[in-house]
Amino acid sequence: MSGPDLSGKYADVVPKPASSILLVRDGATGLEVFMVTRHHQIDFASGAMVFPGGKVDAADSDADARAACDGAEGLDDTQLGFRTAAIREAMEETGVLLASNHDGTPLNAARSQSLNATYAQKLEKNQITIGEMARAEGLRFNLNALVPYAHWITPAVLAKRFDTPFYIAEVPPAQSELAAHDGTEAVESIWINPGEAVRRADAREVTMVFATRLNLIRLNQASSVAEALQQASATPPMPVTPVVYQKDGRRWIDIPANAGFGGPSFDVGPAA
Questions:
Q1: Please, what is the end-to-end C-alpha distance for the chain in angstroms?
Q2: CB-based contacts of 85: which residues, under 8 Å, 6+ apart?
Q3: Number of domains into which the chain is organized
Q4: Is residue 245 one of the residues assigned to a domain?
Q5: Which of 21, 50, 58, 240 is the most exposed place for a label (fewest CB within 10 A)?
Q6: By the 8 A CB rule, do 196 and 48 touch?
């Protein structure tokens, strides 16, 4: 690295815990991932094409949430909170609920729609917790269905910083056609091939942050849901905090070469 290091301006800002989720399915022409476009008035990644996600709430790891989870054994509250937050945010932003009935049977489309209509806005407004919803409705969350995919920490070049694990999960077949943006935080949504999403970003047809683009490039290496899940399972993610700097009139970002995203140096455009 050479040139001024831009990434330490907000080094004293502690990143807030957040979670994001790559909902995937096998489409007619190959692997597809569900993406939303954030409202332009949102103060982080406004107007960007992103995966569903958001901040972890304290209640995402409370006793009710833990009691509703299968696969939580051995997870501390931080690890549990990351996973249940991903499930909650998926429901709030897309209407997809990664849960089963108490007897282990999958949710059908009608029950999923009913639960979404009853609880999604209440969850978003903190009028109910994910654990309270699960207890009231006899729901189970299979945490093993969420495969760790990536782990990005916002560089200190930004005042708003997040510590964000990304998970990948197959959308339940009964809910695949129900996925839609919430109309508040997200104003558009699409099932899209990851390579096509990258093409649109590179053509400046959509706005996309650095981490999202690299996640998509990696996802595009798989041709099916099964392959994507297998690849993610085989390569546990390491936390990555990009280093941002300027060199020769260009803006560069460095990440560890062994993080699984290529690099280690990326030219991301003219210096500001």
A1: 18
A2: 17, 18, 19, 54, 55, 56, 57, 60
A3: 1
A4: no
A5: 58
A6: no
> What is the β-pairing status of strands 49-50 and 30-38?
antiparallel
Can you tell me the distance from the alpha carbon of 208 to that of 224, in angstroms, rounded to the nearest whole number? 23
Residue 113 has phi, psi (to 5 degrees) of -65, -40
Q: Does the structure show a pLDDT above 90 at 49? A: yes
Contact 145, 90 (CB under 8 A): no
Backbone φ and ψ for 250, nearest 5 degrees, come out as -120, 155
SS3 category, 219: helix
Does residue 221 belong to any structural domain of this protein?
Answer: yes
C-alpha dihedral, 16 to 242 to 41 to 183, nearest 10°: -80
Under DSSP, is residue 270 helix (H, G, I), strand (E, B) or coil? strand
CATH number, position 144? 3.90.79.10
In Å, what is the CA distance from 12 to each residue of 44, 45, 254?
Answer: 19, 21, 20
- The 3-state DSSP class for residue 32 equals strand
Structure token digits, residue 122: 């209440």
pLDDT 10s digits, 203-225: 999 999 999 999 999 999 999 99
Residues 262 and 272: their CA atoms lie apart, in Å, by 24
Please report whether residue 247 resides in a domain. Answer: no
pTM of the complete model: 0.92
Nearest Cα residue to 157 out of 48, 32, 241: 241
Lowest mean pLDDT among 31-45, 83-97, 208-222: 31-45
pLDDT at residue 44 is higher than 80? no
Q: Phi first, then psi: what are they for 148, rounded to 5°? A: -55, 130
* Lookup result for tokens 């056609």: 177
